[in-house]
Amino acid sequence: MKEPNVLSINEVVSRIAEFNTIIDARSPLEFTEDHLPGAISAPVLDDAQRAEVGTLNARVGAFEAKRLGAALVSRNIGDILQSQFANQPRDWKPLVYCWRGGNRSGALATVMARIGWRTTVIEGGYKAYRRKVIEELQSMAPNLNLIVVGGRTGSAKSRLLERLAAQGEQVLDLERLACHRGSVLGAWPESAQPSQRRFESLVWDALRQFTGSRPIFVESESRKIGQCQVPEPLIHAIRASNVIIADADRAVRSRFLLDEYHHFRADVPGLHALLDKLVVMHGTKRVADWKQLIGEDRWLELVDSLLVEHYDPSYDRSMKRNFSRLEQAPVVSLRDTDDSALQQAVDALVVLSRQIGTTAPRPSDRSAPDGAPLSHVP
Question: Which residues are part of the catalytic machinery?
């Protein structure tokens, strides 16, 4: 009679490509908070059932809670097998985990293994994975060969990163992972931010796929991107790295931002509410003037005023305070934000990154060799 195999999280990550499906047996809320990259949700207890079992454990005792939990889990496993996994072939190789690699994943994995599927359970479950994420974010960050793309708001830094990634460069797009542009007006419409744990998992998953000494392009971010906090080791690595400035005239940046933030035209009350957060910095009169520009449909003037009064001074102060190599930073001029101008800027960024790479000291003497994943650095 077959039993599930048990692997440590280190073995799982090194062999992750061997598994056909990664199954998270925890509740839907636990899954939403964070999960292994590529995992699917197959809860053996839903949120209400998990709460019910936990309450029973606290009020009555562990035996009664386990008896109820076992009955619920058994029914749910039957439903899962008849729905989500009904058509899996004989040679299917699933990887299963729960919170600590115990009761929930063990129950599901045991049934699956006895059916005949080559089932594996993560020893220590999600908690072991979470520890690995934290440890590797700390160990990988000092070894990153980062090229920081700086530039005032509206200089199309995110568009430049997208193009760099599309042509095969290594790019860590923190704003995309955080689903936020990083400013008070930077929330993505109709897209919620991930939890802090989920954000860290996404960052870790991106970093572990980078290789060797090739440069990694990243934007000059603040410590917080919306509600997501950039991991401390990573923010230190970013601020100690070489910077290339993307520079564009204010008129170019204003037109770009007007297009980029077009959704605010359909949500003026929401924009007003966000501008109210700037009263503490700029006063009631200045914010009222901005709202008047909105009411008079003078959007380009609004954007230009926000750049002059708020964004440019704030960004300049932050860059001078946080980037010690700023004065030596080369500049890439962005004459416009159309395809041709963006591509010219991208080409210049690539050339400059190669030049910097031949002269700058490595971030750490523990760097991975070319082609080796950074997560394999000892």
Answer: 98
